[in-house]
Amino acid sequence: MTADYRDGRRARKRAPRRAATLWDPSVRHLSALERLRAQEAVRDPALLPLRYARMASSPWTYLRGAAAVMAADLAAAPHSGLTVQMCGDAHILNFGLWASPERQLLFDARDFDETLPGPFEWDLKRLATSIYVLADSEQLGGTCAEEAATAAVDTYRTAMRRYAEMGELDVWYDRITSDVPLRGLTSEFAEAAFRAIEKQSRKRTHHGVARQLVSEEGGRRHISLDPMKRIDEGLSLEQRVRAYEQVYDTYLASVSPHLRRLVHRFKRVDSVRQIVGVGSVGMRVWLHLLEGDSGRQPVFSQAKQATASVYEEFLGPSEFVNHGERVIVGQRLMQSASDIFLGHMRVDGYDYYVRQYRDMKIIPSGRQIAGYLPQFAAACGHALAKSHARSGEPAAIAGYLGKGNAFRAGILRYARDYAGQTHADHADLLTAIADNEVTAAERAW
Known about the structure:
This protein has 18 helices and twelve strands. By secondary structure, the chain is an alpha+beta fold. The longest helix is centred in the last third of the chain and has 29 residues.
């Protein structure tokens, strides 16, 4: 047994695999609602009613928006001390497909707003919890939820043991192709899923998105997106030019010198304000339409506000001064291949990260994966293990996991209990809205 494996076994004393996974609501120092309200200061006040309306729609949407609540709850229990680059919000729909720079569709984690170095098991607890909550939301039954959560944890363990026996470069270069989430399905079901993936990937190319979102009026192209708010609304021409130059220059400073030549070949055509996701509602997000000098290459660039990770309160501040940089460094650490346009900037006191918008990105819905939830969950466990092996010590993690069922039993018990806590917290939010303690509205403006 190597030293790394022994390190993992010693970590069991810090956090016994069964006892460390117990959920005890009495450890909370603040209520779930107080945790959510504490985040309001960094979000756009105009969007807060929409954020709460979306979170109130179901326990599933509540879980997606309550990463800060779960972060505090995870931090209240002993942890292994085996550090990886955490996704930070590894719920099951934060995994999906997108294209590598070579245009190959890969399966990987896809959301890194909360990424931070931290204990590997925190990501697994959130993944397993999300499976139970999603299965209930889709009315799939407890047996399906149990099978899917078991598949996620077991596949993570199997993959981590494999990574522990691989060389560093082999781990770094490993990729999960688009067929992996569909393995184990009947041929008829798999073929239908493949066709759906192929169709979505064609729609989400640069040209496909342009056909959906771009219209022309008076010889000028603009983004047709609803709901939206124009970035230059109410500003003079001089102010618009100065604001865009600030964005452009600070972004360019964050990308590699060889990429600047490519970026310089694009000019901004239009910009709109976006409302995205559930957990991100309230963050300032802008969508830019760019056009290449050739006139044949429309590209959408998205700039999304980044704030401190919800885990920094418990694990310490990020090493990066700009939270946009924290996000993109975490993404590059966790993904086998990342968007070449990733960058960061700071504008008017707000941190942002920049990425391509819908570059063959396929984000599943609960309804889409309901028919093969265990297979999809297994692929998520595999992807998470790959990401953790890239940034952590796979042999130590494998040593902690062991060959028996103690770790799996503990994670699943925690996930079941915390899924129940999520339902209770969601009910508390509904009560707060009914009592006018929290304002919720379906439209932001």
